[in-house]
Amino acid sequence: EDFLTLIFKAMMKDALNSSHPVSSSVQSSEQIEEMFDALSYIKGASLLLMLKHYLTKDVFQAGIEVYLRNHSYGTAQSDDLWDSMNEITNGTLDVKKMMKTWIVNKGFPLVTIVRKGKIISVQQEKFLYRVEPENWTSDASYLWHIPLTYITNRCNFTHCTNAYLLDQKSGM
C-alpha cells in the first residue's frame, strides 16, 4: 500500500509537462543531482516491475543474473541491463527498444481501449494532468512500447494470460 502511494505521487509529478525523463545526458554535477530524485527512483522501480510482469519472473531474474555476472566488479552503462534482458529473450523481444521509450520520454501514456463487438482497439497518447504554459512542449512524437496483458472468458485467472505489445499510436 505504501509503494502504491509513492507510485501515485510520482505519477502526479510525471503527469506535469515540467517532468523529466528517467535517463538523459548531463553536462554538470548539478544536473546529476537533479536527475536522482524521487520521481526517477519510483518510476524506475515501477518500470522494472512492469518489465518483470511482462517477461515473467523467471526470465526477468535470469536477465538480472546475466547483468550482475557480466558487470560484477566493473562499471555499467545505462543500456547494459536491457542488453542482458535481450540476451535472455534470445531476440524474441527487443527489451532495449521497449524500455528506451519509457526512460527517455518524460511522462507516461494514457491507453484507451474501445470494444465494438468482438473487435478491440487500443490507442495511446501522452497523459498530462495539467498543462503549464511556461513549460509546454508538443507531445505529438511521444510513443511508448506498452506491454498489455489480458485474459479472456476462455481462460482461468492463473494460466491464461495473453500479452500484446502496443508499439504504435493505435492497434487492434
Automatic annotation (TrEMBL):
Residues 7-102 form the Peptidase M1 membrane alanine aminopeptidase domain. It comes from the Eukaryota. GO terms for molecular function: metalloaminopeptidase activity; peptide binding; zinc ion binding. The keyword Hydrolase applies. InterPro entries: Peptidase_M1_aminopeptidases (IPR050344), Peptidase_M1_dom (IPR014782), Peptidase_M4/M1_CTD_sf (IPR027268). This is LCAP aminopeptidase. GO terms for biological process: peptide catabolic process; proteolysis; regulation of blood pressure. GO terms for cellular component: cytoplasm; extracellular space; plasma membrane. Keywords: Aminopeptidase, Hydrolase, Protease.
